[in-house]
Design a protein that fits this description.
This protein is α+β, with helices and mostly antiparallel strands. It has 8 helices and 12 strands.
Length: 285
């Protein structure tokens, strides 16, 4: 009963796999990141005390009722748990450097409140997000933007790394350049990056996670500012969404920043429908 932690992804998935897969959309971040860790462990730090930390909570029945994942330098991701359980987790992890918490609003607030008491940190809203699920791909642009989609290759690494960094800066992400380069290489390794190319020039990008439990997640989607408003982002997002369906995905998901109404409207026109909201709270001081 209570929280148990580990740095071993195999042990974590053995304990939590059934629990996480029972609500695969709600647990998309933990499922997709741990699948990446399982398939490509070298993409994460193995330095003791500096690598990923994972854990699960069991109630009096002995069944898993909650889980978390923290991969430095990103916030801790916590599943839907009662407020008191989130507070217990904060007390359990006191002393570990955490930049923030990513969870449902009530869970995030409970965790952050306990973390603030334990550490004296300041808490602020970093990002409010909405999870979308593809209902039916319905992208019908008029006119169709020039160009076509193609799977990115190793030759695109430099440009895509720059774009990952630019995207991270726009959404105020917490990753370093090295983190973004590692992310690009990992995605290229499984064909998880698609670009829209027009006139011989790459003009937009969309990524896909590895498929796990019949589910994939789209992201990031990025178009440089000077190439926006031509429909490229819609086109490349529709392309990767179709790729996911063709590969047998039963659920195609994506997150949006609620502060970006344009992106939210674009995804709904493509056929995505809202599922639920999340919040990322940042810790400082």
């Amino acid at each position: 009963m209570g929280w148990r932690t580990t740095g071993d992804v195999a042990e974590f998935l053995e304990a939590t796999g059934r629990f996480l897969r029972a609500e695969r959309a709600r647990n998309t971040v933990i499922l997709t990141v741990t699948e990446q860790m399982r398939c490509n462990p070298s993409s994460y730090s193995a330095v003791p005390g500096d690598g990923p930390l994972l854990g699960w909570w069991t109630g009096s029945s002995g069944a898993v009722g909650g889980a978390f994942m923290q991969t430095p330098p990103f916030p801790i991701v916590v599943t839907d748990v009662p407020a008191r359980v989130a507070e217990e987790l904060a007390a359990e992890l006191a002393g570990r450097p955490l930049p923030g918490v990513n969870a449902y609003p009530a869970v995030a607030e409970a965790f952050a409140g306990a973390w603030k008491v334990a550490t004296g940190c300041q808490v602020e809203v970093h990002r409010e997000q909405r999870l979308y699920r593809l209902a039916e791909l319905s992208w019908r642009p008029d006119p169709v933007p020039p160009g076509a989609a193609r799977i990115a290759t190793e030759a695109d690494t430099g440009l895509l790394t720059d774009w990952f960094i630019a995207f991270a800066a726009e959404v105020n992400d917490m990753a370093s350049r090295a983190d973004q380069l590692a992310a690009v290489r990992e995605r290229l390794g499984h064909g998880g990056l698609t670009v829209w190319q027009a006139g011989g020039e790459i003009v937009s990008l969309a990524g896909l996670t590895r498929q796990v439990a019949g589910m994939v997640r789209v992201g990031p989607v990025y178009t440089p500012p000077e190439k926006r408003a031509y429909g490229y982002a819609s086109a490349v997002t529709a392309a990767v969404s179709q790729q996911a369906l063709d590969a047998g995905a039963e659920e195609v998901l994506l997150f949006t920043d609620l502060a970006n109404p344009v992106a939210n409207s674009i995804y709904q026109r493509i056929g995505y429908r809202p599922v639920e909201d999340r919040v990322v709270l940042a810790f400082s001081g």
